[in-house]
Every structure is written in C-alpha cells, then in structure tokens.
Amino acid sequence: MTASARRQSWLAVGALTLAVLTIGFDVTIMNVALPTMATELSAGTDGLQWIVNAYILLFACLMLPIGAIADRFGRRLVLLIGLGVFALASLAAAWSDTTGAVIAARAVLGVGAAVIMPTTLATIAVLFEPHERGKALSVVVMGMGAGIPLGPIIGGYLLEHFWWGSIFLINVPIIVAAMIAIAVLLVESRDPAPPRADLLGGLLSIMGLLAFVYGAIEAPDRGWTDSVVLAALVASVVVLAAFVWWELRTRQPMIDLRLFRGRQFLWGNVNATLVSFALFGLLFVVPLYLQFVLGYDAFDTGLRLLPLIGGFVVGVGGGTRLANRIGHKIPIAAGLLITGIGLVVGAGTDTGSGFGFAAIWYAITGLGIGSALTPSMDAVLAVLPPERSGSGTAITMTLRQAGGALGVALLGSLLSQTYQDRLNVTGLPAEAADTARDSLAGALAVAERIANPNLAANAQSAYIDGMGDVLIACAVIAFLGAVLTVIFMPGRSRPGAQPNAEERQQNLVTS
C-alpha cells in the first residue's frame, strides 16, 4: 500500500467512526428522553417499550442478509444507503407527533443501523493489512463506545433546552458529514464473483431472528412460560434450524456456515458475544443504580459512566497492541478475566457505597471489556476471505445483538425476581404494593406519595441485591469464557489465512 493510499484509508476510518458514533448514542440516549416522550405523546408503558424495542428488533434481524447484500453490490454504496436511511428516519422521528409514528421511525432507524454496523466492519477488513487492521478496528470500536456516555450527556442538555425531537436531530449533521467523507475517501469494494442471491436463506434468517428477538423482548414482562413467548421462541428454533439446514446444503449459501469449523472464527464470535453479554448486563443495571439509588439526574449519570468508558478505551488500545504482538488468545482471555473481577467487585456494592467505589469497578470492568472485545472481533476478521467480509462480519454482529437481547431478557428476569423477593410491601394498599413491586422507580414514587422513607430505603436495598445477582451472573459467564478461550482458541492465526495485498486489491473496485 502506497503512503497516499494508506493516508486515505486512515482518513476513511475517521469517516467510518462518525458513521457508528450515532449508533453508540442510541444505546443510552433513549433512556433520557422516555419520561418526556411519555408526557408529550401521552404514551403508555407498552408504547414506550416499543419505541425502544422496534429499533432492537430490526437491527438484530436484518444484519445477516444485509452483510451479503453489501458483498454483492458494493460496501461503500450500501453503507451510503444505510446512512441515508438513518438520517431520514432521524428526521421522521424528530417531527413525529404520535407514539405509533415514533415507533415506525425507530424501526427504520434499526434498518439503517443494521446496514451501517456490519458494512463498516467489513470495509475495515478489506482496507487494511493484518498489522494495521486491529488499530483501525479499535478506533471504530472506541468511537461507538464514546457514544454510550455521550448519549445521556447530550440528551440531557438537549431536553433541558429544546424539545424531545432534538435527540434525533443530533444524528443528522453527524450522518451527513460521514456520508460526504465516505463518498470522497472510501474506495468501493465488493465480491468480484458474487454467488446467486440466496432469497430463501435471507427470508429464513430474518423470520427466525425476528421471532427469537421478539420472544426475548417480551419474556421479562409476560413471563417465560407465556404462550406468546413460548410460541415465538419455539418458532425461532424451528426456523433457524431450517436456515442452518438450507445454508449447509445449498450450493451458493448467503452465509458460509462452514467458517465455524475454524476454531479462530468460532471462538472469536463466541467471545465477542460473551463480552457483549457482560456489557449489555452492565448497561442494563448501572444507569438505574446511578439515578434511583445514588440520586443523579440523566446528565450526571452520563458523566459518571465516563470511568467505564475510560477503562474501555484503555483496554481497547492495550488489547489491540497485545494481539498484534502475541496473537488474540491471551488478550481475550485476560480481558474476560479482568471483566469478571470487576463485576465481582461491583457485586459487593451495598447501600453505603458511593460513587467512588462504583468508579473503581466501572473502570476495571471497562478495561476488561475493551481488552477482550476488539481482539475478539479482529480474530474473526483475520480469517475472513475479503470477498465475504460483509456476510462474515454480519454473523459476528448478529450474534452480539441476539445474545445481548437474550442476555437482557434473562438478566432482567433475574433482577426482577430478586428485587421482588427482597422488597417488603407489608401494610401497603394492593395497588401501591403492585406499583412498588413493578420497579424501583415505582417504589420510590409510592414512598414519596405516602411519605414512607423506610419503603424507599428497602426498595433501594432490594435493587442493589438484584444488581449484585446480575453482576455475579455476568462474572460467571466472563470467567467461563476466559477458561474456554485458554483451552480451545488457537494462539495465532494460521499463516496465510489472511489474503495478501494483491488478493485484496482484486476485491477493490476503484470509482
């Protein structure tokens, strides 16, 4: 690669980082805006849940076919289309005046995100040589991670000074800047000999993942034995089994599932999913702890997530450098081990713990997650044929999102069960008791209404107990992942697994 081409590739990484920054926003910014939207739109609990879940549903179930589409038609073209969809959906959401309209716009935002994420990672796989690929990937991952605390910080500011729709408008100038930079800087790349379109495989993957994620979303509220939840989960198993059967037998599959025969590809994906499970679990319980136990508002909550993101950024850089020197196995295993230690420390939180203690275990856990995540994803990219980088990275991102959705469902059920078991509602009227059992926010509202500080203290203690159980569960998963990585993951990529510069260049179409 010439110095000029190398410089252009790194400038393109900056553009790709802008593209994924808004996806990082969406992880946390909606939590800030939901109370305001509930008032302004007269939205009920179900409506608010679907404002959040419509995005997750479409994001998770569309990445597999979109990854294959990007390989076929060109990653730059598909990425620009995805960014355009995201920008238009942001505008639609900002100016919506009904709950249904916001839900529809959020669903389209999920479509845009499903295009942006795998296509961005696939582009990095094609652009860079192995010794620089991990660095480029770490920059993009840090950009997405930066959006997590920026969501409530920026969202809190916008809600204080403007109307709720401004949280969506903030996406638009960032996306427009990313589109201009990508159009100018990014070289087109595609599969030079794409297989025949696998329409049946695409349909089966979408339907199976749609049923799976829907079941996971509904399970915490309806219960795992509810007929709708069971029907969705059983249907997902049947349809996804049919998808696997078809992909292994058709001559031109949408996704080459035989990639999982390689230990590095398999365990890179497993570890990326496990790390995401820990991150989703942490982001599920920590903001509520900061807001309803320590008493911070949304803006201050965002600020107090910075130790987590600071540790994450340090871990991403350190894990990437270590992986470049000694391979992926050790930094992934060490990262998972550090993650588990941080979570175990966090599980020791009690009602007397302040933010100082929280900042310590946030930073430790963030360090571990960052150290493991980028090497896990780079391990996958290292063994992908460049012409299939879109569909290959789509597998990783789909597993992360589906695993995260299931993780939040399971962890949410665990948190709810512990909270309800430890909450004392003796003497409360039936309606007040039900409200208190429903959530910590509900219990605090009841306690304030009836001037019962003991109920508030008991509810906060019950929530901390539930949070501890969630953190221990995530820690066990992290420790198990570390052990399995040491046992099964190869130390280094196979020599020659990564295509040389000439082979990569054949997959670039200059435009």
Write up what this structure looks like.
- With 511 residues, the protein is an all-alpha fold.
- It has 19 helices and two strands.
- The protein has helices at residues 3-40, 45-73, 75-94, 99-127, 130-161, 166-169, 171-185, 199-222, 227-249, 263-293, 298-303, 306-326, 329-346, 355-382, 389-422, 430-438, 440-449, 453-488, 501-505; strands at residues 188-189, 508-509.
- It has a two-stranded antiparallel sheet with strand order 1-2.
- Helix 10 (263-293) runs parallel beside helix 15 (389-422), helix 12 packs antiparallel against helix 13 and helix 12 packs parallel to helix 14.
- It is globular.
Short description:
It is built from 19 helices and two strands. It has 511 residues and is mainly α.
Layout of helices and strands, plus pairs?
Blueprint: H1 3-40, H2 45-73, H3 75-94, H4 99-127, H5 130-161, H6 166-169, H7 171-185, E1 188-189, H8 199-222, H9 227-249, H10 263-293, H11 298-303, H12 306-326, H13 329-346, H14 355-382, H15 389-422, H16 430-438, H17 440-449, H18 453-488, H19 501-505, E2 508-509
Antiparallel strand pairs: 1-2
